[in-house]
Structure formats: C-alpha cells, structure tokens
Specification:
The chain has 2 domains: 164 residues, Rossmann fold (3-Layer(aba) Sandwich), CATH 3.40.50.1970; 179 residues, Dehydroquinate synthase-like, alpha domain. It is 52% helix and 18% strand. α6 links the parallel β4 and β5. The longest helix is centred in the middle third of the chain and has 21 residues. It is globular. Bound molecules: nicotinamide-adenine-dinucleotide and zinc ion. The site of nicotinamide-adenine-dinucleotide has 31 residues, from α3, α6, α7, β6 and β7.
C-alpha cells in the first residue's frame, strides 16, 4: 500500500503534483472522469479548473448530493456513464466532493473493469481528515450504512482548504469533531492543540488549518496502517460513534443534527462510560465534557422519554448476545482501548446522566 505521506499533497504543491501526474501518465491514462455532486460542481469544480486548465476537457459525472444517494443504484448510473463515455482500464476517476462522493467514487473505481485508478480531492473537512483516509469505501444498502464496499487505495490525496470557504459552519464542525476524536484516542498533545487552535480552521488560516489537518490525517493513518482490516486497533476510531450513530438515526427524521454534534455527544456519553468502566479520571472526563458541551452548545437536548427511545435503538440495533455491546473507551486523554464489554444498564445510565 502507498504510504500516506507519499501520496498526500497540500495546496499549490498538490496541484503541481497532480498536473505532473496527469502529464507524466499520458500514455497510461486515456480518459479522465471527474465525479462530483451538484454542490461541488458549483463550488469546487471552478477552483479545480482554475488550477489545472486542461481538466476542462475531462468528462464530468454528476450525482445528486446527500447520503440518500450513497447506494448501489447511483453506482449503476455511474457505470453506465463510464461505459457510454468509453471508460476503460486506462481511465482515471477524480473524486471531487465530500465523503459521499469519495466513498462512492473509490468503490466504483475498485470494481469498474476490475479496478481503475482514482484520486481523492476531498472538499469537506470531514472528507479531508476522515472519509478519504483509511482506504475504506462503499455504499449503503437500504438504511444500513456501508454494507457494500471495498478497500482501495487512491493514487493521490489532494488537500486544498480553499474548498472549505463555501462549506457551512455546520459541516465544518462535523469535521472538527473527528479531529478532536483523533486527539482523544491517540494523541493528548493534539487534543490540546486542537482546543487552542480549532477556530483557525473556521477562520481560513490556511497555514494552521493545513497543519492541524495534516496531523489529524497522520493520526488516523498510523492507526489504519497497524490494522487495515479493522480486526482490532482500528476499532478505536469508533470512539463516540456507538452512541453517536444511535443519536443520528433517532434524529434523522426529526430535526437535522450534524454528524459532528452527534459524535460530540457520543464522545461525552462514552467518556462517562470510560469513567465508570475504563479508569478514565474524573479530571479528564470533566475536561472532555466541559469543552465539547460548550463548543457544540449541548445543553440537555434530550428529554427522559427521548433517551428511552435512543437507548432502545442502541439495544435493538445491536445484535449482541448476553446483553452486552463492545465499545472503544478511553483510558485517559490520548489513550483508548477497544473491545470493552459494556452492559446495557451502564449505557442507559450514561444517557440518563446529565451534564
Ligand atoms: N470511508 C470512510 O472511512 C469514511 C469515514 C467517515 C465518513 N465516511 C462517509 O462520509 C460521508 C459523509 O461525508 P461528508 O460529511 O463529507 O458529507 P457529504 O459528502 O454529504 O457532504 C456534505 C454536503 O456538503 C456539500 N459540499 C461538499 N463540499 C462542499 C464545498 N466545498 N462547498 C459547499 N458544499 C460542499 C455536499 O454537496 C453535501 O451536500 C458519509 O457517507 C460517511 O459514511 C466515510
Ligand atoms: Zn464519524
């Protein structure tokens, strides 16, 4: 597998490398496709064209934005388009979009003609620090996330924080939650740095944003490299997500909640479980709780009856035996363990716990 440090490029250097890659492989790439959605077509394609003029000659494949489109039917539409436009084994796909586009594009590239090359150009913060890292891609089946997919490595990863300028605050804070998660599970210094500097990302300070994004990518990549197929260690990346995903599904049909808020809340609840079950100190717990609840303006957003429903989602969603679920829990800020057995009783108490 490519080492991430060798394939990830930022800003001007990134476009120079991409240009170089395209011109140098002119014999082996005969057809470039840009996969994008209706928003990245408007906001991000002009930036890409501006940097690499000759990409205007490539074929555009547009999908409708949104998680609902992350399914096999969208892939079939893309395969048809690729066929129609004479895609072949020498084709290259540039995925220009958030996690939905890079997940779909990476998957399509892994099976079209038994595999073609692709490059990720993530345009959301979450895409930059999470979705386009770790070689997983795939689509949902009905309501079950990412059941169909593959592991596939892009030839390059292009990071350009210019794309973030058109992204809503809501989407920015989704990415920021994952960056905080990286600090909490693996690097206390990074958690502290993020606490002090996360606002620079929102305020377009390119240098600091690039630095923080790079560090986040490296933290995730190091974990992935040690356990690419998620047999063990990689599970620590799920910290905050067991409860966080249940909150997301509960709220999906009610009001919109960003992945970031759901995960920030999930991290608070799961830190409480870590305090109860995994030796997390009260001091660390309070630090996490106060910081995240303040940052995400989380203040008693669920009533007791709602919590009962969320609890039932976790309980019935997970087909676990013996009334237990396995969590990734913190030992302390910067250290996380996985496969921690947690009883439903403790999960319920964590949700009822007020902060
Ligand atoms: N493969 C993995 O390891 C992995 C990890 C984490 C998340 N994911 C997946 O990532 C997806 C979520 O990704 P996301 O949060 O990037 O969502 P997304 O791709 O749906 O993008 C969010 C919204 O922002 C718009 N958008 C994208 N870039 C923009 C820009 N620069 N300016 C304005 N609008 C822009 C999109 O059109 C979309 O409406 C989920 O499907 C999740 O399962 C995958
Ligand atoms: Zn997440």
């Amino acid at each position: 597998m490519n080492q991430i440090e060798n394939i990830i490029f930022f800003d001007k250097v990134a476009y120079k490398k991409l240009k170089h890659y395209l011109l140098n492989n002119i014999d082996t790439i005969n057809n470039v496709f840009i996969l994008l959605d209706n928003y990245t077509k408007i906001h991000c394609l002009p930036i890409l064209y501006d940097k690499i003029d000759f990409l205007k000659k490539s074929n555009i494949i547009e999908i409708k934005s949104g998680e609902k489109k992350k399914n096999i039917y969208t892939c079939i539409e893309i395969f048809k388009k690729l066929e129609e436009l004479k895609g072949n084994r020498k084709s290259l796909i540039l995925n220009l979009g958030g996690g939905v586009v890079t997940d779909i594009g990476g998957f399509v590239a892994s099976i079209f003609k038994r595999g073609i090359r692709f490059i990720n150009i993530p345009t959301t913060l979450l895409g930059m620090v999470d979705a386009s890292i770790g070689y997983k891609n795939g689509v949902n089946l009905n309501y079950i996330k990412n059941v169909i997919g593959s592991f596939n490595v892009p030839d390059m990863l292009i990071i350009d924080t210019n794309f973030l300028k058109t992204l809503s605050k809501y989407e920015i804070f989704s990415g920021i939650a994952e960056m905080f998660k990286h600090g909490l599970i693996a690097d206390k210094n990074y958690w502290n740095e993020m606490k002090n500097k996360y606002l620079y990302i929102q305020n377009d300070n390119v240098e600091i944003a690039n630095y923080l994004i790079y560090k986040s990518i490296i933290i995730k990549q190091k974990i992935v490299n040690k356990d690419p197929k998620e047999n063990g260690l990689r599970k620590i990346l799920n910290f905050g997500h067991t409860i966080g995903h249940a909150l997301e599904s509960y709220l999906m049909n009610k009001k919109k909640i960003s992945h970031g808020i759901a995960i920030a809340l999930g991290m608070i609840y799961e830190s409480w479980i870590s305090l109860e079950k995994n030796g997390l100190s009260k001091k660390d717990y309070n630090e996490i709780k106060f910081f995240l609840s303040d940052l995400y303006s989380i203040n008693k957003i669920f009533s007791n009856s709602e919590i009962e429903i969320i609890y039932s989602i976790i309980k019935y969603d997970k087909k676990n035996e013996n009334n237990n679920i396995y969590f990734s829990l913190l030992n302390k800020i910067g250290v996380c363990s996985y496969n921690c057995e947690v009883s439903f009783n403790i999960i319920k108490n964590s949700l009822l716990h007020r902060f």
